[in-house]
Prior knowledge:
By secondary structure, the protein is of the alpha+beta class. It has helices spanning 5-14, 54-62, 75-90, and strands at residues 30-34, 49-53, 97-102, 115-122, 129-139, 142-145, 153-160, 165-171, 182-191, 197-199, 203-208, 213-217. The chain has 2 domains: 5-92, no CATH class; 94-217, Sandwich (Immunoglobulin-like), CATH 2.60.40. The protein starts with a helix and ends in a 6-residue tail after the last strand.
Amino acid sequence: MPFSVDIRRKVLLWCDRHCCLCKKVCGVNIEVHHIDPESQNGADDMDNAVPLCFECHSFVQHYNDSHPRGNKYKPEELKLRREQVYEEFTRHLVPPIHYEITQAIPGGGARTFPNVGFLVQNLGSALPVQLKVKVEIAIDNRPSGPPAGPHYSGACLWNLNPQSLVQGHFVIPTPTATQSKVEVAVNLTIVDIYGRDHHNLPVAWVYIPEQNGWYFEPSPGVQ
């Protein structure tokens, strides 16, 4: 089966109608190729689609495994090259996003642990985005899972308009003694206006009981 209209529209937007191998501007002379062939039950989904110009499409299609010359474009390389091109033509759609774990409440005051605040702000002035926020909690370096509810599981989309700020909060699942190490890792995915995911690297914050505050940890123990 061919790819759906929605998939074709998205991948052609994400590559700006450039070939994902040679990066040539194609205009109408572009095809959406099945990385794993349809004849071998290749899926008609986004992960199996790569936009190619006619020439590169023929190179990918006609390589003869029985009489190899050169190096075949393997599925893993096709996907990585595709993501390079998608990123090149969509990165301008991602505004700077600030986020942090904090006990401070905007306007004054502080939350009482184990009630924990999550602040996120779209610092851009033009483009709205959506966010997937995945939070993982570790207590004494042992994973304790995400907070309750959908907002911090990565399954819920947060709408974030230009210059807007959202302060959410959640409760650490198991309140702990003050000597326990509590680490909150945040894995943030930014979804641009054309529906493409941009993944940030996971980062974390570690609770400081004496200050009712957090210090930043760039290498989370749990992700």
